[in-house]
Amino acid sequence: MIILKSPQEIERMRKPCRIVAEILELLKASVRPGITTSALDKIAEREASVRGALPAFKGYSGYKFALCCSVNDQVVHGMPSNRELLDGDILSLDFGVLCDGFFGDAAVTLPVGKVDQSSQRLIDVTEQSLYSAIEFAVPGGRLSDISSAVQSYVETRGYSVVRDFVGHGIGRSLHESPQIPNYGQPGKGPKLKPGMVLAIEPMINEMGYEVNVLSDGWTAVTCDGGLSAHFEHTVAITENGPEILTRLA
Ligand code: MF3
Ligand code: CO
Which of 76, 92, 164 to mutate to test the pocket of ligand 1 (most atoms within 8 A of CB)? Predict the structure, then answer.
């Protein structure tokens, strides 16, 4: 069952979503060669607490950190560590908070120092695939219009869509119905309605779409060692179209 949010509830979701956006922006300013991902995790946790929010991922299914930090061929759910970031790495940061009863969730992929053109292109195409999909988060459409928008944007540019992870509804829980795959035929699935709030999150690989989860139980990596990028926004469907709640105004 998809839980519809009233306009008042969507108002309340602005705060956790804004906090997530602010903290990702702060982290972006700290990402540089030599910093460790665990230092970034500490910044995220402290900045959430300063804002009266709880990190949403810490304690979720036993995950021990505030932030997911996925480097290069890591797709999602990379764990913060004492590994220093290197010039030329790409880093996906995924962060969520709980505040006043509601969750916000977003992700970005960032270049570390100077990256080569092909890495930057993967980052740009993944980000644009998210914005192309968000345009389909409108009343009257169907859920799979969003999925198919990601797939067609990405595949026509030579990349592949990860199958093993999906976006999700979000609200009083981090993960609500529906699941949102990033591939599929348009025109299928539930009808989109005002009051739906969706975390749309394309995970895009440079080469094949296959992924493996490492023996740590969390870190997803590409099977072929190719790079992977991830962007996510929490988006409310309103009468007036999509509203990106995790974007700073
Ligand atoms: N944005 C991811 C998701 O929606 C992050 C979850 S990480 C976890 O699933 F640690 F919370 F599992
Ligand atoms: Co999410």
Answer: 76
Rounded average pLDDT over 66-84: 98
Q: Verify cis geometry, omega within 30 degrees of 0, for the bond prior to 178.
A: yes
Q: For residue 16, what is the DSSP state?
A: H
Q: What average pLDDT does this structure show over 140-169?
A: 98
CA of 106 to the centre of ligand 2 (A): 6
Q: Tell me the average pLDDT across 81-96.
A: 98
Whole-prediction pTM: 0.98
Please report the pLDDT score of residue 232 as a whole number: 99
Could you tell me the two tokens for 78?
A: 């990379």
User: Which ligand 1 atom sits closest to the C-alpha of 94?
Assistant: 1
Give me the amino acid identity at 46: R
Q: Calculate how far, in angstroms, residue 54's C-alpha sits from the geometric centre of ligand 1.
A: 14
Mean of pLDDT values over 91-111: 99
pLDDT value of residue 249? 80
Question: What is the mean predicted confidence (pLDDT) over 87-113?
Answer: 98
pLDDT score of 70 more than 90: yes
- Which ligand approaches the C-alpha of residue 77 most closely? 1
